[in-house]
Amino acid sequence: MTFDALQERLGYRFNSEPLLRQALTHRSFGAQHNERLEFLGDSVLNCAVAALLYQRFAKIDEGDLSRVRANLVRQQSLYDIAQKIELSSCLQLGEGELKSGGFRRPSILADALEAIFGAILLDGGFDAAQQAIHRLYDPILKSVDPHTLGKDAKTLLQEWLQSRKMPLPVYAVVATHGAAHNQLFEVECAVPKLEIQVLGSGGSRRAAEQAAAKLALEQAQTLEPTTPKRPRRNAARSTRPIDAAPA
Q1: Looking at residues 29-45, what average pLDDT do you find?
Q2: Measuring CA to CA, which of 30, 93, 141, 240 is 20 to 30 A from 213?
Q3: 64 is catalytic
Q4: Contact predicate 11/76, CB 8 Å
């Protein structure tokens, strides 16, 4: 992909194309790399996303806004955006990074995207950088649930049960496999009220608990009963004609 095509996808045209070139240059390629621009872009990204969330979710408190922002600016989220705009095809990498597949590495792509935000800030000012960030994040925010985004499975399961006044789940390690330095844990998550017992596995006890909680939550949501409909009042009345005499 050309620099022109990338700028089309960013929705921003650089006055100084060398700034964009630097933002796409990994330190393995040369001395004029993107790490300082990445530092700048990280700051403008946090500010722009915070402002966007503040405007869009008026009823969400500061704690939840911070959690959602942290999820949206983390490496995986930046990597997903970089993939969508095909940023990898524009990266400038050294020979070693090219051979090792650096153009697919999440850390390199996420850093380059942040560097681009920093470059836009220098090239066009904060408003231009904010608009570019909003444009890339707007499709994501349309499908975001701010009440659950960034929460782990154990937290979501606990909140789901508490909202229905049910006892908290019980976790128990049922087995461990492998050598001490490379163990696999199996953890049971039980929700007695719903007769749920599921097993999760992971490289640590915490990871196994999270895996089990995810399965338990999925089962709990499928078992949730629907509220029965009340019988219509007319249906409960006698069908005897009003003017009929009693027996």
Answers
A1: 96
A2: 141
A3: no
A4: no
